[in-house]
Amino acid sequence: MDFEVTYTPEQEAFRAEVRAWLAANVPPDLEEPVDPAHLSYEQYGKRRELGRKLGAKGWLYPTYPPEYGGGGLSVDFALILEEELDRYGLHLPPYYDSGGRLGAASILVWGSEEQKRYFLPPMLTGQWRTWQLLSEPGAGSDLAAVQTRAVRDGDHYVINGQKIFIGSLHGCEMMWTLVVTDPEAPRHHNLSWFMIPADLPGIEVRPMELLTAGGEGGASPGLKHTVFFDNVRVPAFHLIGGENNGWKVATTHLELEHGGGGLIRRHRVAERFLEYCLTTKRHGVPLSQDPDVRDDMVEVYIKKEIVRLLGLRTYWLSHANRPRSYEGPQLSYCRKVTNLEIAEIILRALGPYTLTTDPAWAPLAGLLEHFQRAAVVGLHPGGTTDIQKVVMARRLGIGRTVREEAGRLR
Predict the structure, then answer these.
(1) Residue 381: how many CB atoms within 10 A of its CB?
(2) Could you tell me which residues are beta bridge partners of residue 161?
(3) pLDDT digits 0-9 by tens, 159-215
(4) 190 and 182 in contact (C-beta within 8 Å)?
(5) Which of 291, 281, 264, 380 lies closest to 333 in space, CA to CA?
(6) pLDDT in the model for residue 1
(7) Which domains does the chain have, with CATH numbers?
(8) Residues 342 and 294 sit within 8 Å (Cβ to Cβ)
(9) CB neighbourhood size of 368 (10 A)
(10) pLDDT at res. 355
(11) Is it the case that residue 278 has pLDDT exceeding 70?
(12) Consecutive H or E run containing 291
């Protein structure tokens, strides 16, 4: 049975156009660091410039309406863009912008027309990069437990609080977040959703020292941050979806973050591992000739293909606006667990060399060492594996009389 997507002549003509455009516009010296924490500002700048060029064509967020800066393309054309970018090791957008990938959908669904026309064009054309500010010291998986407060003061809200595990390197132009606007109201009915300019007075961004952000020698600062709000005055116009309606607004971006956006990229680490086993010799014989290693290679290949095809299906369901239920969290759970399983298989096949970044010993210049750490950490962001199981159960109606609906994406 063939699970791959097939394309019409018109779509293949679009592919040829995209391929030619990328050949002319992707910088030839674009690098992909082993660890995202080591992305230089120069390389980041090249990705941002490519993003603005894609945005000018409507290709940065191709399925969004043209009147807001999107391309107005169907999901099949968006898939072609993703596939062609993947040939360069890139995706849409070609830099970290979880706020844009997730927050823009919430504005599209819940924002007023005036808010859509103000916020979406710079986000969808690459002029703004946005960070999502969700987790707090006492609120991660239990997101509704956030404590950051916003108090109305005339035409502004004054925000105080702290968010953690935020963003990436090299800053942003905008942030979006959930805050408490009615501390006396019940959970889920006390929250509001704000877009916040990153340069407002009272915002402090402080790097977090994390082993998981690391590279050779331990932690690399700057990949994740703590963001402090000290009497930050945010215009009331930046409140999206109405006061105390923030949880409903959040269901849209949570649907995407929990897997509803899909996953169609190739598994770079798995493919590099397979190539390494085919080309690297042990005792004069390719690793792939060892029957145990060969079994491991087959298992890795099958696992990464299952995730890719499941992601393709979920991506299509979401962007074609088809009915969805548990598919998003199902994909997220599968991806998280499979990555950990692949990491364990690679460790079994290659041994302790997998755990070093020493240039004299490390396979693939430390890529596998980084993946060993990333696979463990990856069980947590965007909803832990336990959270994904809870969401799947609610979508299936287990233990409830009414099934939970998937978050709105349009």
Answers:
(1) 15
(2) 229
(3) 999 999 987 889 999 999 999 999 999 999 999 999 999 999 999 999 887 765 433
(4) yes
(5) 380
(6) 54
(7) 9-95 (1.10.540.10), 130-244 (2.40.110.10), 261-396 (1.20.140.10)
(8) no
(9) 24
(10) 93
(11) yes
(12) helix 291-319
